[in-house]
Amino acid sequence: MHDTLLTQLAESHRALSEMLAGLSAVQDRRPSPEAWSFRFVAGHMAQVELDCHLNRVWRIAAGEQPHFPYYTNTGWDFSHYTLEEWLYLWHGRRQELLQFVPTLTPHQLTLTATHELFGTITVADVLRIAHDHDEEHLADLSVVMGHGSWVIGRLSVFQSLSPVSQPPLLPTLLNKSASSAAPHGRATSL
């Protein structure tokens, strides 16, 4: 079961990353006045991967039996990195998740946490939540870009979009202030 979830997470990450990478030239365009810019969507995905998906899996696997509140980062200022830099960060964080889960013991996979919205959750539940989150953003961007409905299940392959590049961004990222990522508001959930 976890192999299937990990494959789905890799595929949804690839599809959404490719779609967003194809929008880097217009990274600050907002599809509507109330919508996030494409850069902010990439920033949101990278931050959620760390704050929600990785953090939750780590803490569940550690046996903490944590309680997770409703998470939101809407209103945060994601302008301190480019869309490509956010995609680079998200890629690294998703790879960490995809590589960490297979190292867990059968016992660790049965451990639980509680979530304000989802109730009792396991590592598998966190993976499903992560995949659903990817698909929500894929669906939103698909509509914005005029791709409409899904081609393969709920996942489309967007051949016309360039693949995500993995530039040597570490020096750039290390020189940027982490404090500029402070929240300025609230609203999207996990």
Strand order of the largest sheet: 1-2-3
Describe the oligomeric state of these chains in a short phrase. single chain
Largest β sheet strand count, sense and barrel closure: 3 strands, mixed
| Rough outline | globular
Specify the CATH class: Mainly Alpha
As a whole number of angstroms, the C-alpha radius of gyration is 16 Å
Indicate the mean pLDDT. Answer: 81
Q: Would you list the SSEs in sequence order as H and E?
A: HHEHHEEHH
Beta-strand proportion: under 5%
CATH superfamily: dinb family like domain
> In terms of per-residue confidence, which ranges show pLDDT below 50 for 5 or more consecutive residues?
148-188
Total of domains? 1
Question: Could you please say which CATH topology applies here?
Answer: Four Helix Bundle (Hemerythrin (Met), subunit A)
Number of helices: 6
The appropriate CATH architecture is Up-down Bundle
Structure write-up:
- With 190 residues, the protein is mainly α.
- The chain has one domain: Four Helix Bundle (Hemerythrin (Met), subunit A).
- 49% of the residues lie in helices and 4% in strands.
- The chain is built from six helices and three strands; from the N terminus they run H-H-E-H-H-E-E-H-H.
- 29% of the residues are buried.
